[in-house]
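Researcher: Next sequence.
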Amino acid sequence: MNKYIKVIIYVLILVLLLSGAAFGYRYLSGRYKDNKAKKNTVETKDLADDTEELSSLQDVVDEEAYDAQDTEQEYIDNSTVMTAPDFKFLNNDGEEAHLSDYFGKPIVLNFWATWCGPCQMEMPYFDTAYQKYGEDINFLIIDLTDGSRDTIDSARDFVEEKGFSFPIGFDTEYDGAYTYGVSSIPMTFFIDKDGVPQVYQIGTIDEAVLNEQLELLLN
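Model: Next structure:
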């Protein structure tokens, strides 16, 4: 009888141990799933934040925000000498360049895109001006190259098809757009030979105004 009681006790102990192990497994498994879910939630949130940042950047160059009639010219207060903020981009040869590389000559800095109607309207003015002033003024015609609507190849093809002679640059990382707060295009900045910004214009620039500002840069 004592023998059977011992066997029953051993069986009960074994059942309790197995039950405890099963409970521990379920508990730890649940904790792991909860932690993994929280981690995935954080990663999803980070991805959502990144997507929101990219979306806001896309809003910067949303073609529906641009109106050829909405032009605004502003003179920059340079009473305290301030060098134009530097930024990096790819030059016409696809090599990394910086705005500061072009200091020493006046600079006309223009942000544009192939799909922007107002940008297309002023391009012939820049081409004519480049042929006239290209030896004395650096023309930085910077395409906002988002990789979808505009790529390096599509921007080059556009300029070639139109027969424009000026070199273009590619703001593939939107460093220029961020640095200069480009909220609509076209947007044009006029910078003197010492790298000091003088005036800028939002919207399509008139040919006469363009030439006037270029003459002021030279004088």
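Model: The CA atoms of residues 15 and 21 lie 10 Å apart. Helices lie at 2-60, 117-133, 152-162, 175-179, 207-218.
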